[in-house]
Structures are given as structure tokens and as C-alpha cells.
Amino acid sequence: MSEIMADENIVKKKQDHKNPKRFPNKKHAIKKRLPVRPIEGDNVIYVTKKTNFKAQLDKCCDLLTKGENEIILHGLGAAIQRCCNLALQLEILFSGTCQIEVNTGTVDVIDDLEPLTDDVDFGAQVRHTSSIHIRIFRTALLGANK
Questions:
Q1: Is the pTM for the entire model greater than 0.85?
Q2: How far apart are CA 30 and CA 87, in angstroms?
Q3: Strand 123-138 to strand 28-32: parallel, antiparallel, or no bridges (unpaired)?
Q4: Which of 65, 55, 40, 87 is nearest to 143 (CA)?
Q5: Of 140, 56, 43, residue with least CA distance to 95
Q6: DSSP letter at 116?
């Protein structure tokens, strides 16, 4: 029984080594390009893991307080959780006056392969990463019920 398990593991390892995208090649250095931004605007915010969460929250609050009808948050990969947290914090802060619309998807990102030796050419590889797009829009204005 253990011989069969060992044989299956060897076969799996050999199959994994056939796909060069899964394992970094020692002949190339991988440089990740910035992903393509779908839309630009004052009300569009790209959430990243590097940006301070409080600063992103303050920017969103300022936009909604100054009369912006909607904000669109975009997050990729590891920033998806932060993007969701940001939207939920905004929903709590503007209790009952905002609604959230969420769309998820996959985005193709490109990595450049730069050769480490002279006998190898430049290349590129495409990866797929998860994405989230959250639209926060006003349903009522603060102080309108007075």
C-alpha cells in the first residue's frame, strides 16, 4: 500500500515540474506589473494592503460627506478582505443612508520574466487573481429627515 502512495507522489511531483508558471525558473527574475485599472475618477478608490486603512476610511467618509452619491471600491487578491472591511465600516458609519452592491470576479495580471543569463530571452506570463468591486451608494441624505 505504501509503495502505491509513494508512486503517486512521484507522479504528482513530476507533473508539477512540467508547468513552469507554478515554479519560479532559475533563469528568470519575475517582475510583477501593476494591474490594469478599470476606471478612474474622484469617487473610485483602489484598496491595497500597503495603504493605511484609516486614511482610506477617512477619504471615503470625506467623499460621502461632501455630497458624492456613490463610491466604487476595487480590491485584488489579498486586499479583498480589507476592501470588504472598508465597505462594512462605511455602512456602519452612515447607518441606514447607504447601501452596498458587491461584484466579484477574476482579473488577468501579467508578470514580466527578465533573464538572469544571456542565453535566455525576455518573456511574460499571465496569472489570474480574484477581484472585488464594491459600489456604495446613498439612499438618503444625512439630516434630511429633520
A1: no
A2: 33
A3: unpaired
A4: 65
A5: 140
A6: S
Determine contact, residues 57/90, Cβ cutoff 8 Å. yes
Write out the E strands in 19-122.
28-32, 44-47, 70-76, 98-115
Among the listed residues 110, 104, 92, the one whose alpha carbon sits nearest the alpha carbon of residue 130: 104
pLDDT in tens, 21-67: 544 567 788 888 888 787 788 899 999 999 999 999 999 999 999 98
Q: Which amino acid is at 106?
A: T
**97 vs 16, 21, 45, 138, 141, CA distance in Å?**
51, 46, 20, 6, 6
Separation between Cα atoms, residue 79 and residue 48, nearest integer Å: 5
